[in-house]
Amino acid sequence: MSKYELPELPYKYNALEPIISEAILRVHHDKHHSAYVNGANAALQKLEAGRESGFKDMDIRAVERDLAFNVSGHMLHTLYWQNMTPKGGGTPGGKLADMINESFGSFEKLKAQLSSAAKQVEGSGWGLLVYEPVLNRLMTLQIQNHQNLAIQGSVPLLTVDVWEHAYYLQYKNDRGSYVDQWWNIVNWNDVEKRISSHRRA
Fold this sequence. Notes:
The protein folds into 2 domains: 22-82, Fe,Mn superoxide dismutase (SOD) domain (Helix Hairpins); 94-196, 3-Layer(bab) Sandwich (minor pseudopilin epsh fold). The protein is 50% helix and 11% strand. It has helices at 22-53, 60-82, 94-104, 107-119, 168-171, 175-182, 188-196; strands spanning 125-132, 137-144, 155-161. Strands 2-1-3 form a 3-stranded antiparallel β-sheet. β1 (125-132) and β2 (137-144) form a beta hairpin. α1 packs antiparallel against α2. It is globular and about 55 Å long. The termini are far apart. The relative contact order is 0.15.
């Protein structure tokens, strides 16, 4: 059976300082992200065992819920690491900038919308910029946990993690300051590559 694997960070643990500390990255990546990978693989193993037993005495609803939660957590964290870079920030250019202007009116309006979505997540979750292929436009989503309030068929492009483990060691309960600072390490080249492979001409 194929298994999910924890990816290595694309930079050193201290590379995103002072925006995100080395201590946060070590706990966030090595403990929290790792736990989602392990949880996803455990759910897959339970489903494999269930197929052998005909799903007798199994609460498949709970297992499928665990699978959705942990796989979504793994995927969003993998995207989150790649969406950041030590020399990030600034404003996007090229086709991405054009699409941002088409979808939101300006980069500043996108920034305000995604920041507001992330800061106001109820409990734990994510602020997410996605490509929605039916309307061929960008949208923001306010994800609760890892999998709730998603739009099916949308393609994740850029995400900011607002679970407390993403910022609490450094920013305490000031989620807003963390989100504001996060824009200084956004990897726009990564986002550009993602939209270029999906957007319709």
